[in-house]
Amino acid sequence: MKKLLFIIASINFIFSQSPININKQEVLVMPNEAVVEVFGMVCSFCAYGLEKNLSNIDNINSKKYTNGVFVDIDNQYLKIAFQPESQIDYKKIHSLITDAGFTPNAIYSIEKDELKQHTVDKTGKMKSMKHKHDHGDSHDHGDSHDHDNM
């Protein structure tokens, strides 16, 4: 019986995560996390500043990653871990990243066992849609920013 429960739990875990491609890197989106593609992160100072600002978001799971935030400078994305069953404020995440001088391209999360992509349209409204897998994903991440404005 224990083996059967373990197998069911393992299968559920495998199917509850979804891969996306960011900068030609496969990134797993896990339940209770937001993965954000961010243009303009070029140094460890960038990563530290974003990590510090984002670690103050409501419902963050500070036990995961460094204060709830993982930053991958090389591949231009970050992950934010949230407490189970908590609401994720995508607009707040977008705003904090933008205010820090970076460009959040898309925010990915799993909602009701479905991979969602959240973006801000030209009018400033947050829109969410089912993510379409694109295996040829490539972006120009040459954006930069001024450290003095952080």
Query: Low-confidence parts, pLDDT < 50 over ≥5 residues?
Result: 4-15, 133-150
How many beta-strand segments?
8
Please outline the major beta sheet: 6 strands, antiparallel
Largest sheet: spatial strand order: 4-5-3-6-7-8
What report would you give on this structure?
This protein has 150 residues and is an alpha+beta fold. It has helices at 2-15, 44-54, 90-99; strands at residues 18-22, 25-29, 33-39, 69-72, 77-81, 103-111, 114-120, 126-130. The strands form two sheets. Strands 4-5-3-6-7-8 form a six-stranded antiparallel sheet, with helices on one face. A two-stranded antiparallel ribbon has the order 1-2. Strand 1 (18-22) and strand 2 (25-29) form a beta hairpin. The model is unreliable at 4-15 and 133-150 (pLDDT under 50).
Brief sketch in words of this structure:
With 150 residues, the chain is α+β, with helices and mostly antiparallel strands.
Keywords:
31% strand, alpha+beta, six-stranded antiparallel β-sheet, single chain, 3 helices, two-stranded antiparallel ribbon, 150 residues, disordered C terminus
